[in-house]
Design goal:
- This protein is α+β, with helices and mostly antiparallel strands and 247 residues long.
- The chain has a single domain, classed as Elongation Factor Tu (Ef-tu), domain 3 (Beta Barrel).
- It is 16% helix and 34% strand.
- The protein contains 5 helices and 12 strands.
- Strands 1-2-11-10-7-12 form a 6-stranded antiparallel beta barrel. A 4-stranded antiparallel beta sheet has the order 5-4-3-6.
- The longest helix is centred in the C-terminal third of the chain and has 12 residues.
- The chain is extended.
- The two termini are 48 Å apart.
Length: 247
Amino acid sequence: MSLGLLGKKLGMSQIFDKDGKLVPVTYIQAGPCYVVQKKTKDTDGYEAVQVGFGEKKEKNVTKPQQGHFKKGNVPLLRYVREFRLEDGNGDVPEVGAVLDVDLFKEGDHIDIVGVSKGRGFASPIKRWHVSRGPETHGSMYHRRAGSQGASSYPSRTWKNKKGAGHMGAERSTVINLVVVKTDKEKNLIMVRGSVPGHPNSFVMIRKTVRAKKAARQLFLQATAAERAKAAASKVINPLKASKKGGK
């Protein structure tokens, strides 16, 4: 994993990109983030950087946490997470440094980690998308959970049976999203698509783990015009032409 940012999901909107297309985006307030601690292989057994975001009142911070933030010479922070680093990563910021949206640029592919919206105690139909019963009158079987196991054998419910239960409010990662635009003055990152969590929830932003897929997508975007031009100029054999339009 490489260095990333912490931020707050503000909500969704839509903007026009440079090609004039209407793009659905999520606004994320990413930064300023502070480097609270650096972990090394010698002292901690692994390489990592601890980053914090969002200031907090002193009365709401415990004394050990206050000492930890004071040691790093950073404000009292609300949301603190670690970013594991690969061995030999030389460009590691110092403790107390400030990270902002300059870490990412337009067109970058990123992963966003957050906590999904809590749905409470949900039925199997909502939670697992299982099939429902007939909606006709008299069927007496509409949105029930279904069979839980035969009576003679196994005389119990199989493990991992999809049933009703608590849904949502758990860590969720959306991978390979694209940065549409950044605003350094307002510390905003506009990401194409949706992000887990409710508005004002905290999220982690990091470079995507799907590097090969992201590179392939960038290549296809860069060569889209050339491939369209080549397809238009391709000589068509009339004997093999389709019956639909002759192409």
